[in-house]
Amino acid sequence: MSRAVTNLQIDSTRLWDSIHETAKFGATPKGGVRRLTLSQEDKQVRDWFRKACEGAGLEVHVDTLGSMFAVRKGRDMSKLPVGLGSHLDTQPTGGKFDGILGTLGALEVIRTLNDAGIETDAPLCIVNWTNEEGSRFAPAMMASAAYVGDFTVDDILSRKDAEGTTVGAALDGIGYRGETKVGTQKFSGFVELHIEQGPILEAENKTIGVVDHGQGVFWYDGKVTGFESHAGSTPMPLRRDALLALSEFALTLEQIAIKLGPNAVATIGEAVIANPSRNVIPGEIAFTIDCRSANADTLDALDASLRAAAGEISKKRRVEIAIDQVWRKPPTHFDPKLVDAVERAAGTLGYAHRRITSGAGHDACNLNTIMPAAMVFVPCKDGISHNELEDATQSDCAAGTNVLLHTVLSLAGVAS
Ligand code: GLV
Ligand code: MN
Ligand code: MN
What we know:
This protein has helices at about 5, 10-20, 40-55, 100-115, 140-145, 155-160, 165-175, 200-205, 240-260, 295-315, 335-350, 365, 395-410, and strands spanning about 60, 70, 80-85, 125-130, 190-195, 210-215, 215-225, 230, 265, 270-275, 280, 285-295, 320-330, 330-335, 355-360, 375-380. It is elongated. The protein has 13 helices and 16 strands. It starts with a helix and ends with a helix. Helix 4 links the parallel strand 3 and strand 4. It has 2 domains: about 5-215 and about 330-410, Zn peptidases (Aminopeptidase, 3-Layer(aba) Sandwich); about 215-330, Alpha-Beta Plaits, CATH 3.30.70.360. The longest helix has 22 residues, at about 295-315. The strands form 3 sheets. Strands 1, 2, 3, 4, 5, 6, 14, 15 and 16 form a 9-stranded mixed beta sheet that branches. It is of the alpha+beta class. About 35% of the residues lie in helices and about 20% in strands. It binds glyoxylic acid and manganese (II) ion (2 copies).
């Protein structure tokens, strides 16, 4: 590679500006973003993104699950494109960086190549994956999961949100049910830039995380069925209180995860009392469980232990605890050659870096099941994510995008 290519750097200010420009779509008063997948705010950011990609000379197409693909031609169009990108949807009280950095960082890579007049040998393709977050429709990362064949497209289209709206109806509602058949836009590999969403890089003063593993995830829908009765006249020993049963289960789950730790976490993120009333003993609660570990055996042990705990607590408290596993994502071992390519780029650029396991799920984890994939992490403030306070520095975001740029260049090759 020529010196001009080796020394190429992205435009940090332009990247920062686009992150903040798009943060207005779904901006919350506390400085975060609420941009649930396939909402009107998601449509706004998608329209912005399509226009920006077209402005950078890319050809945009959309698949039948709404994932957006923006292709930059290469010298050799017989080669598969190198994929790069992430997602633009957020949690209900999300931040400005989760997913967005990787998608807009990919756009910045293309803009940088355009400005420098660099043609790559293989084409490049930015992706904005639909519904990475999984908070409106389960599971998370559903479009990339369908892309790799873990779910059928019809199954995903029929998934419903809490209001009963299907993915299909939501796609039509914002005009993003595209025509590309899911899975037909192929890649030679995929690289995703993301904030770490944890505290390790910041604590160790590292600028770049070279992600070599991703935690596996088990999701469950649960329901506790007790018996509604009068809060004043029902003696304590006679109650079949669904909330108390769930409380005992939640505390037991905490102990299970601690015992199986440090490489195990478990969370009850949603719990909804049916027909709540301050003077009615809760008779029914719907809840969710999220369990994660980078170790498959630990995940199985979590699964067995939480089911045993549910059995014991339901007997003791004379309630029913139903637990239905709705998603099972095994741990990810990212492609060693691509991980090396990320590490080389970080080293050549002179950034302090370390290998790291991703605690969060990512579309790259799905893609890695059918193609080489890798990820680049940058620190986020106090390790906070899935929170409106989520923050990252301009220089770290730029560093991660430079690593993305040079990783992608090493994979796509530079046309001579
Ligand atoms: C996605 O954000 C996840 O890790 O749940
Ligand atoms: Mn994300
Ligand atoms: Mn997220």
